[in-house]
């Protein structure tokens, strides 16, 4: 009986601790992103749009969610809200090149290649935000992703030193089940984001790159 009571007490304590961490992480995200999410027409101009990856189809093309993000990035560029698009995605293997697929899509939509900079090691949101400032020297940006992901993305970028605002896609709501699953996953994903920030996890690093600075120094 005593063993059972001890086990129950430990279980209740662990559950309460987990719920506390979850709640605290979500509160941090909500506060850090408050009043920093906009529509394209209303977002304050920044030098750079940071476009986060969202996967490729088996044919190597952007998934619908990623295409929606890229469409928003083009709208920001066309509206002169940004001057450069930093597209950040996964290129862990030669056969999977998310940033190049993103660039090809944007160029086909009329964005000049000279205004696009690829980050080949944006493996997750934290990595993309951290590399934006540590590798590419970005200090201000408009983050582009799906609406439900935007609070965490903005909060994470701010936590690593990027003065970030965000624009979120809502067209993905047409994929009802996928959208709902994504919103649900976000509740837990903020815990990982909080942990990464608390330990200042290093992303994949390397030499600093001048692509963003060079593009910004060149007039349209």
UniProtKB/TrEMBL annotation:
Protein name as catalogued: DUF218 domain-containing protein
InterPro entries membership: Cell_Envelope_Assoc, DUF218
Domain of life of the native organism: Bacteria
DUF218 domain span: 48-164
Any Gene Ontology CC annotation: plasma membrane
Organism: Nostocoides australiense Ben110
């Amino acid at each position: 009986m005593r063993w059972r009571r001890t086990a129950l007490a430990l279980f209740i304590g662990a559950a309460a601790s987990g719920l506390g961490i979850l709640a605290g992480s979500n509160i941090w995200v909500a506060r850090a992103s408050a009043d920093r999410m906009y529509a394209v027409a209303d977002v304050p101009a920044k030098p750079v749009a940071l476009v986060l990856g969202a996967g490729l189809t088996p044919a190597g093309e952007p998934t619908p969610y990623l295409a929606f993000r890229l469409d928003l990035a083009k709208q920001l560029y066309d509206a002169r809200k940004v001057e450069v698009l930093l597209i950040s995605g996964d290129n862990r293997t030669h056969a999977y090149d998310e940033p190049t697929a993103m660039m090809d899509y944007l160029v086909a939509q009329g964005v000049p290649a000279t205004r696009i900079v690829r980050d080949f090691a944006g493996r997750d949101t934290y990595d993309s935000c951290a590399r934006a400032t540590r590798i590419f020297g970005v200090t201000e940006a408009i983050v582009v992703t799906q609406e439900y992901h935007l609070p965490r993305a903005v909060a994470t970028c701010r936590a690593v030193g990027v003065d970030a605002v965000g624009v979120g896609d809502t067209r993905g709501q047409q994929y009802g089940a996928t959208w709902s699953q994504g919103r649900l996953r976000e509740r837990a994903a903020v815990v990982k984001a909080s942990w990464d920030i608390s330990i200042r996890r290093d992303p994949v690093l390397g030499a600093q790159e001048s692509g963003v600075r060079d593009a910004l120094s060149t007039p349209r």
